[in-house]
Amino acid sequence: MQVADAYGAMTSTRSYRDILPQEKVRAEFVRCSGTQFDPKFADIMIKLIDNDPDYKMKG
């Protein structure tokens, strides 16, 4: 659930920032895999991002 919550937070407009670019979202999952995110679930999210070139999954 943490991976899905993080993805939703990064790909939604916030009062203090716009939606993050998909490259930054992907990089955050790579960077935090094994620390903030379970590597198994981070890898699944990275694959989902890689299969969404038009960024339709966002927010």
Give the termini distance in whole angstroms: 16 Å
Helical content stands at 40-55%
Average pLDDT for all residues: 95
* Element-level helix/strand string: HHH
How many domains make up the 3D coordinates?
Answer: 1
Largest sheet: none
Protein model, in words:
The protein is an all-alpha fold. It has one domain (2-50). It is built from three helices and no strands. The protein has helices at 2-10, 22-32, 39-50. 14% of the residues are buried.
Overview in brief:
With 59 residues, the protein is mostly helical.
Secondary structure topology:
Blueprint (H helix, E strand, L loop, with lengths): L1 H9 L11 H11 L6 H12 L9
Helix pairs in contact: 2-3
Question: Can you give keywords for this protein?
Answer:
mainly alpha; 3 helices; globular; 59 residues; 54% helix
